[in-house]
Amino acid sequence: MSWYESLTDLIGDTPLLRLSRITEGISATVLAKLEHLNPGGSVKDRIALRMIEAAERDGRLLPGGTIVEPTSGNTGVGLAIVAALRGYRCVFTCPDKVSVEKRNVLRAHGAEVVVCPAAVPPDHPDSYRTVSTRLAREIPGAVKLDQYATPANRESHYHSTGPEIWAQTEGRITHFVTSVGTGGTISGAGRYLKEVSGGRVRIIGADPDGSVYSGGTGRPYLLEGVGQPGIPASFDPAVPDEILAVHDRDSIETTRRLAREEGLLVGGSSGMAVAAALSVAKNAGPADLIVVLLPDSGRGYLSKIFDDEWLGRFGLTPPEAGRATAAGAL
Ligand code: PMP
Question: How far does residue 323's CA lie from ligand 1's centre (Å)?
């Protein structure tokens, strides 16, 4: 017989899958780390578990306590799952551009969700970050775990994501490509891979065009959960060798290609990371082994990235949508 005792035992140890169709004409090996196969459907399960355990250990989170967190959804799902198993209440704040499906997942796990305007600066009293700080102060027994500040965020990737990739590739990885949101993944996994390889592995970030990590002003873009209007403490600028700006159009087109050509229903930040990985791969050779991290599932974006009408509103109708209509009309 074989079973797991707790859902938290199923967090991490995600597989690598070689991308074989979207990589046509590329001689390097491109392996995708499938984080949507975590129990909560994203890479953020990893940090949720570690942040809660850190707060329990240092006495900030006591039995029956409340977790308050500003989250675009994925961290919330991870926290809500661990909180449900351990008897904590969850109150999440999120920007209004986060899809309704994602908010409803949080509510399904018993969390309360406070929706805040996305189009205000981070220090504005109505921003989802400021509101979370206020709620953590006002609710008795509440703790803000703060993925944007706590070392537990990047530590989870230093101790799990990074070592997994090194072991799975038997140290043959040459490039690590990952999207940057809080910066926890690139800072933690990237640092581990740099250290263990003696600086040989190249660490490449993917950032929405417009966000500050790739030199933008912080102007709005469509992708969720990635990029920032300002550099948070969770990001370690010493780790990435390079951060590539990817336009929404490329990210969305690649996301849709992943579903159609590779069978991978993943989110927009996965498409963004793969778009960046493909541009790295085009200049790489047959001995290169590129690992690209796919942070979450595409289920939360069916009414956005995978909806032709929604895309059309932003002038982003992908070419294959037109082809499908033309074929249907015949
Ligand atoms: N993709 C999605 C969908 C996310 O929610 C996040 C986290 N905000 C990321 C990518 C980026 O991960 P990190 O915060 O570790 O930089």
Answer: 32
> Where on the phi/psi map is residue 291: left (φ > 0), alpha (ψ -120 to 50), or beta?
beta
Q: How confident is the model over 92-101, as pLDDT tens digits?
A: 999 898 878 7
Q: How far is 180 from 147, CA to CA, in rounded Å?
A: 13
DSSP letters for 236-275: -TTS-SEEEEE-HHHHHHHHHHHHHHS---B-HHHHHHHH
Tokens of 66: 């409340």
Positions marked active-site: 44
Please give the model's pTM, rounded to 2 decimal places. 0.93
How many Å apart are CA 291 and CA 270, to the nearest integer?
Answer: 12
Question: Measured from the CA of 183, which atom of ligand 1 is nearest?
Answer: 16
Q: Ligand 1 pocket: which residues have CB below 6 Å?
A: 72, 74, 179-185, 224-226, 267, 269, 295-296
Nearest-CA residue for ligand 1 atom 2 is 225
Q: How far is the CA of 38 from the centre of ligand 1 (A)?
A: 14
Q: ipTM for the complex?
A: 0.99
Say if residue 159 is exposed, middle or buried (CB neighbours under 10 Å; 0-12, 13-18, 19+): middle
Going from the Cα of 204 to the center of ligand 1, the distance in angstroms, rounded, reads 15
